[in-house]
């Protein structure tokens, strides 16, 4: 399961980041988005997803949200 299909308001644990882009991995890591970290989907918009990580909110595009796999 990835963030595009996650239920709004429910907390998930990040399972894996599926990307071959090292820059993207480093960017997500700097936001606190890495395996084992809790993440909550605040809302789904047309082409973005608003997530909460470590008491901060970020708007990420749907392609990035699809790359973040979570445990249910």
Structure description:
- The protein has 72 residues and is an alpha+beta fold.
- The protein has a single domain (3-71), classed as Ferrous iron transport protein A (FeoA) (SH3 type barrels).
- 22% of the residues lie in helices and 42% in strands.
- It has helices at residues 22-31, 62-67; strands spanning 11-17, 38-44, 48-53, 56-61, 68-71.
- The chain has a 5-stranded antiparallel sheet.
- It starts with 10 loop residues before the first strand and ends with a strand.
| CATH fold naming | SH3 type barrels
Q: What's the number of structural domains?
A: 1
Second rung of CATH, namely the architecture:
Roll
- For CATH, the homologous superfamily is named as Ferrous iron transport protein A (FeoA)
- Stretches where pLDDT is under 50 for at least 5 consecutive residues are none
Radius of gyration: 11 Å
